[in-house]
């Protein structure tokens, strides 16, 4: 049965079709609204706007549900490997055993980056944030692998991107440390290779710690997709113009960088360090958050979509305890984080606004325990989010009749006025 919503504007009634998703989400299709009524909708920051129909990820923010292609995030975090989740998001299904082997093999074979790309790294200052290096290097890949017209070329470029991004991320870290780049080894798995390229030095043997590997696997899976967030919508928007995979994903990396998005994991640790250096007086910072005179926000708290709990944060809080214990790490920042959470969750300010810890609140503590430096945290988020961005770029590109993204606006500036000669201004 076709359902409609009725809109009355200036005394004229217009019927708008209602779209219902597979999880019974309801959307009013306004794509013909302007043609029929002359009006547009105004929804700054898109809090009420579904920009597309998508079959990749489902979130129910009220019930704390997150599923990739129908699979619950907790099942994936507990049972899957990150490459399996990449396959799931990009191809829509978990790989069979032969498909998994083939996928892993291809990801391994494409890990090396073109030698000339090392020259780019030489031109950057040591102080460059690894996120700017990552976004530049991913964009630069399109200079080396420009073709993405046929499905086969696109598929190969996706493999290249997944395989090489971690090499580029590890090189960015090595650059900041002034250490030599470590090349990948084909007998290592995806995550082992990344950890080795990150932490090994030529002078010493390096053995991957299984606790670190397992924690990284979980973290990357938990970050792998989150439907229409700022960076993913950026990737779809850039892709809608026909921009290639690397250019579109590079734009996503830039969008992720900000403190309100992926940059929050770095900001959380910096905030916890500030609180620690201020005598661990976390109550003072709760009050600061609430003060009308301050724009201080509790980083790692709040979410546009989750209004009860963020299922990823629940998994990571538990994982933080397990990882720190297995690695024998004691971190006062974890205690401060837990105390902050306890006090905030009982405070009316946070209760009224439905503010809960998000995925970034505990991830930084785990990365610290793993030995990953703070300015690499957002890069880790980007590596995790890659398969989600790729899946959305592909979905957007393969949607029949998809048009370039081009929103409208409500103009509130000056109305027409006459030209004023220079001497008269
Ligand atoms: N600390 C204190 N107050 C907050 C916070 C916070 N972290 N987040 C929201 N609020 C308040 C905000 O001041 C506002 O209060 P009022 O109604 O009195 O003006 C109210 O809660 C609603 O906030 P909003 O800014 O309208 O919410 P939003 O949906 O636009 O923003 C958010 C969502 C995640 C950007 C925001 O909660 C925030 O800035 N959080 C801190 C940064 C952060 O942790 N970001 C990572 C998000 S999860 C990973 C990802 O997907 O990127």
Separation of the first and last Cα atoms? 63 Å
Question: Count of helices?
Answer: 18
| Radius of gyration of CA atoms, rounded to a whole number | 23 Å
- Please, how many domains? 2
Q: CATH-wise, what's the superfamily of the largest domain?
A: Citrate Synthase, domain 1
Q: Level of helix content?
A: 40-55%
Strand content: 5-15%
Biggest sheet, strands in spatial order?
1-2-3
What are the low-pLDDT stretches, counting only 5+ consecutive residues below 50? none
Structural class by SSE content? mainly alpha
Name some characteristics of this structure:
three-stranded antiparallel β-sheet, Citrate Synthase, domain 1, binds carboxymethyl coenzyme *A, 2 domains, Rubrerythrin, domain 2, mainly alpha
Report on this structure:
The protein is mostly helical and 425 residues long. It folds into two domains: 4-60, Rubrerythrin, domain 2, CATH 2.20.28; 64-411, Citrate Synthase, domain 1 (Orthogonal Bundle), CATH 1.10.580.10. The chain is built from 18 helices and six strands. A three-stranded antiparallel beta sheet has the order 1-2-3. A hairpin with a 5-residue loop joins β2 and β3 (26-28). α7 runs parallel beside α8. The longest helix is centred in the middle third of the chain and has 27 residues, at 151-177. It is globular and about 75 Å long. The site of carboxymethyl coenzyme *A (CMC) has 20 residues, from α17.
